[in-house]
Amino acid sequence: MQSPSPAGILVLVAVLAAATAFGWWRRRHDGRLRAVRKRPSDAAAPHRATLTVLGVRPGERTLVQFSAPVCAPCRAARRVLADVAARLDGVAVREVGVDEHLDAARELDVWRTPTVLVVDGAGRIVRRAAGVPDRDELIAALTAGAAR
Prior knowledge:
By secondary structure, the protein is an alpha+beta fold. The protein has two domains: about 1-30; about 30-145, Glutaredoxin (3-Layer(aba) Sandwich), CATH 3.40.30.10. About 45% of the residues lie in helices and about 20% in strands. β2, α3 (about 70-85) and β3 form a beta-alpha-beta unit. It is elongated, with a radius of gyration of 19 Å.
């Protein structure tokens, strides 16, 4: 049996370091709510028609969850959203099957499940999270939005 070459060991160490860095980055960002950047065309809430098709009603704060049948984290996200809606008045939850609404998912830049969109009463997407969102972060985002 031949001993490993120094180049092979170096490649192995580099791959392990890259995988560790990616895992750390993914863990820090998974489920984090982030503000949605406003574009000049956002004044009229450009996704209002798509959100209406998904069941979002004007005037209500809504949590829209995109999920898939084979998505295990989607069940955890569903529980978090139900808990948040039970704690706050006037917050609706809509779960959307990404496979039934593929066009809407593409339009709303949904690339993984679960993805949660926070929609304000004016029909604008104000925050989003890819992964299972933090309950306290959601509550803070919804109560801050209600104060405006």
